[in-house]
Amino acid sequence: MSQVETRSAGDLSVSRPAKRRARGSDKARAEARLGWYLAGPAFVILVAVTGYPILQALYESLFSYRLTAPGDREFVGLKNYGVILTDSLWWKALGNTAMITVVTVAVELVIGFALAMVMHKVLGWLRPIVRTAILVPYAVITVVSAYAWQYAFGLTTGFMNVVLGLDDFDVFANKWSALAVICLSEIWKTTPFISLLLLAGLAQVPSDMTEAAKVDGATAWERLWKVTLPNMKASIMVALLFRALDAFRIFDNVYIMTKGAAGTETVSSLAYNQTISRLEIGLGSAVSVLLFVCVLAICFIAIKVFKVDLARARGEG
Amino acid sequence: MSAKEKTGWYVGALLIVLYAIVPVVYIVSMSLKSEAALSEKTFFPTNATWANYQGIFAGDGADLFLPALRNSIITCLVATFIAVVLAMFAAYAIARLDFPGKRVVLTSALAVAVFPVITMVTPLFNLWRQIGLYDTIPGLIIPYLALTLPISIWTMSAFFRGIPWDMEQAAQVDGATSWQAFRKVIVPLAAPGVFTTAIIAFFIAWNDFVFGISLTSTSDAQPVPAALSSFTGSSYFVQPTGAISAAAVIVTIPVVVLALVFQRRIVAGLTNGAVKG
Asked: Where is this region: Disordered (chain A) (predicted)?
């Protein structure tokens, strides 16, 4: 059991209920009522702003419905899903999204861990500077970061083609190079988040354990794999899952850099293009629902296969 | 730690600083290039000019940029305010009270946080058109709550759990009324957490792009990120690179300044909410 979990188990909020319940049911009922009065509004809004759209999307995905011809709206059952699932565009978008997710999360875990190690080890005047600098990519909005990377690699504006000796090669006209730059900008922007989570995890690794391993003659590498990493499993899992879900929804970078051209379509950009550009509400809704199903699947896999108890990893009491 | 190891970590630290700021420095440098110099393909401008900034504040771009800046500021501030107030009540209840369904509130906040934003866009786009919320500021504030509320609830309940609530009773024993005890003891302890949460929620709203481009179409409600992508150049064949860069710098400055000033709190807020909960 990790440090994270044991800490929350000893938390006041966990030990309190038992004490409270003993005080009599009137008081307990009044407390329950007050609890819902306070938490209710936030809860109702949360459910309304997401519950309504998902139900509406489910409903509309069953219709052939184009905004430019609303009169032709017709119930078609699951036909939209059939159209999408047999279209190679969907599978390409899904493949791209999965690839972006795997590549960015893997690279971010490695870089993020390296950054966290440096932030953990550096002392003195440099420490606050590093911890401040790492927040810059977090604060810069995704659209701005996408433009910065697009201009850096752009055919007419960019210095990267000169640096890399690519001459007149248009990075954004080729699927793989465009996807690579999309991944780069995503990695730049979101690695700080991972490294901060990992830094918090590192801080919870008991230092006497690493010291003991050192005394016993373990190499730095062995200490890393056998002591440090196992002890920060909870924060690695949380970072991994949250970034994976986030990466799977990637949209801003793709929209700015290629608008899905050159075969760089992702699931989110496909949903956007169907709905907002082509006004195909029925098909767009079906893509949205499929995206939602994918996200649920990732959560399910994370919870079942990797045994992440989200609420507990997040210290819910 | 040996001197050699120490140097290694210091080099690493410098690399991190470079990693973090190079793309930002580059967009600043692009914003200072003249239209003719944009195709220089260099990192730094040879002849820096303020022309792009003039363009977005007073020239051609002003009609698009200034309303967008106003929309962004209003929308993000209002959404942050509503989210933080509602989340504050919820977090207080979660940290302080015992009520059935506590876990349901936290779990649904988590579920909403991982919800794909684009899935909300299709139905909202359609509904907003029917009820007249399309291309309005309230029409943007409501979906922004889906972005800001979950993280506010998580971050603030993490902060509130760390508050020693018994101190309030101790103050009452010492003769303070319960309101005095709450105001003088709890409020000062809770304020930093509320403030940090507000900054993080504001960042998230400021970063939004999906809702911005899908649910707005004119300068009535379009926020800056969406406006950036609809900039046009001085003629059809000229890319608005300079104007976009200048506008990008302007939207970046406030959030980067906030991040730098409240660095310690933001780090604590992000990691508390995510790791310690």
From this structure: 1-24
Distances (CA, A) of A280 to A3, A61, A271, B203: 50, 10, 10, 32
Tens digit of pLDDT per residue, chain A (317 long)? Answer: 333 333 333 343 444 444 444 556 888 888 888 888 888 899 999 988 888 888 888 888 888 878 777 777 778 878 888 888 888 889 999 999 999 999 999 999 999 999 998 888 887 788 888 888 888 998 899 999 999 999 888 877 778 888 887 777 888 888 888 999 999 999 999 999 899 888 888 888 888 888 888 888 888 888 888 888 888 887 888 888 888 888 999 999 999 888 878 788 999 998 888 888 888 888 888 998 999 899 888 888 887 877 766 554 444 33
Measured between beta carbons, which residues in chain A are less than 8 angstroms from residue B214?
272, 275-276
Alpha-carbon span B45 to B51, nearest angstrom: 13
Query: How many whole angstroms separate alpha carbon A249 and alpha carbon A243?
Result: 10
Q: How far does B116 lie from chain A, in Å, by closest CA? A: 6
User: Has residue A36 been placed in a domain?
Assistant: no
> Has this prediction a pTM greater than 0.90?
no
Domain count within chain A: 1
Residues near B256 by Cβ (< 8 Å), separated by ≥ 6?
Answer: A136, A139, A140, B24
Which residues, other chains included, contact A234 with Cβ-Cβ below 8 Å and sequence gap of 6+? A2, A3, A4, A5, A201, A313, B275
Closest by Cα among B199, B267, B9 to A120: B9
| Contact criterion met (CB < 8 Å) for A139 and B95 | no
**Tokens encoding A173:** 């006209």
Residue A8 lies in a domain: no
Looking at the complex, report in whole angstroms how far the Cα of residue B186 sits from the nearest Cα belonging to chain A.
Answer: 16
A17 domain-assigned: no
Q: Which two tokens stand for residue A74?
A: 């017709």
A39 occurs within a structural domain: no
Q: Which CATH number fits the domain that encloses residue A291?
A: 1.10.3720.10
Q: Is A9 on the interface with B (CB under 8 A)?
A: no
Q: Which of A49, A232, A268 to mutate to test the interface with B (most CBs of B within 10 A)?
A: A49
A214–chain B Cβ distance below 8 A for any pair = no
DSSP symbol at B64: H
> Are A11 and B161 inside 8 Å of each other by CB?
yes
Residues of the domain holding A211: 87-314
The single-letter code of the amino acid at B276 is K
Helix (H, G, I), strand (E, B) or coil at A66: strand
- Chain A residues within 8 A of B15 when measuring between CB atoms: 118
A137: closest chain B residue by CA: B20
